[in-house]
Design a protein that fits this description.
It contains 8 helices and 10 strands. It is α/β, with parallel strands linked by helices. Strands 3-2-1-4-5-10-9-6-7-8 form a 10-stranded mixed beta sheet, with helices on both faces. The longest helix has about 40 residues, at about 55-95. Residues about 130-140 and about 255-270 have low confidence and may be disordered.
């Protein structure tokens, strides 16, 4: 299948932002757009004590009724998913996408995305899902698992999305972030958008050389680009620069051992992802 922009939606308040971001990416990349909804049928059932004082016939009737109830719930979930996908498709058409596609699957989100990742050019996903949409600054557990599992770029979207007018790349001279510079320089996703390159660290000759390379690569590709080297704690420094400059979208590497790429290593996700009010494009 042709590589496409794939957008994972559910019943959360983040789905509208996901739809708008996915439509923007699809149009900018000239790539097909597919909306995906996954009915999670791996939710553990409530513990049911069927022993009690029920006789055999009563237990059989109860089990039959519970089975029928499960079937009804599955049908309702399927119909809800169909309606969500239809609404997403209509919103994308309003945004200018000609023929968005839809897919509904049963299973877990992470396993489904892993199975479909060869079809993806980009995954768009909300900051949190339906089960955690009211959890303030917390990050959805599905998002953390998706980031750790997939080997495709992931655009994480907060509650709303607007077409970015400025982009910031968190850069450290590593292989991943140098690829990020090259990707950003040539990608139609960022055509005509000014780029800020930020290194968190000391003002050293090596950091200055790395920054100069990044800026030259971007400018040679036709971008308006500026850069900065700032000392401080990584997350606070990047977030401070983003707020100071009014950055609309952040690009960063997802894994690694440097201070910047270490943001997603560990048992919890970073404050950058938790607190961000702008989309983040995570590169692998």
């Amino acid at each position: 299948m042709t590589e496409q922009v794939m957008a994972a939606i559910d019943g959360s308040k983040f789905s509208e932002g996901v739809c708008d971001a996915a439509a923007w990416a699809s149009l900018a990349l000239g790539a097909p757009l597919t909306f995906l909804h996954v009915n999670d049928n791996h939710v553990p059932p409530e513990e049911r004590n069927l022993s009690g004082n029920l006789r055999a016939g009563a237990r059989e009737r109860l089990l039959e009724e519970l089975s029928q109830l499960d079937e009804q719930r599955a049908k309702i979930a399927q119909e809800q998913g169909r309606l969500m996908l239809q609404a997403a498709k209509e919103r994308a058409v309003e945004d200018g996408v000609a023929e968005p596609g839809t897919r509904q699957r049963n299973g877990t989100l992470v396993e489904t995305l892993e199975e479909l990742q060869n079809d993806m050019r980009l995954l768009v996903i909300g900051k949190r899902g339906e089960g955690a949409q009211h959890d303030g600054d917390h990050l959805g557990s599905n998002l953390e698992r998706v980031v750790r599992t997939l080997h495709r770029p992931i655009l994480m979207v907060p509650e709303s999305f607007k077409t970015p007018e400025t982009v910031m790349l968190a850069f450290d001279g590593s292989k991943t972030t140098r690829k990020g510079v090259e990707m950003l320089a040539k990608s139609p996703l960022f055509a005509g958008i000014p780029v800020h390159v930020v290194i968190v660290g000391a003002e050293t000759g090596d950091n200055r050389s790395q920054l100069d390379w990044a800026l030259k690569t971007l400018r040679d590709a036709g971008h308006e680009a500026e850069g900065a080297i700032r000392a401080g704690e990584v997350e606070a420094t990047l977030r401070g620069y983003q707020e100071e400059q009014g950055i609309d979208l952040l690009v960063m590497g997802a894994y690694g051992h440097s201070r910047i790429r270490h943001l997603l290593v560990g048992s919890t996700t970073t404050e950058m992802l938790r607190r961000t009010s702008v989309p983040i494009l995570l590169l692998r």
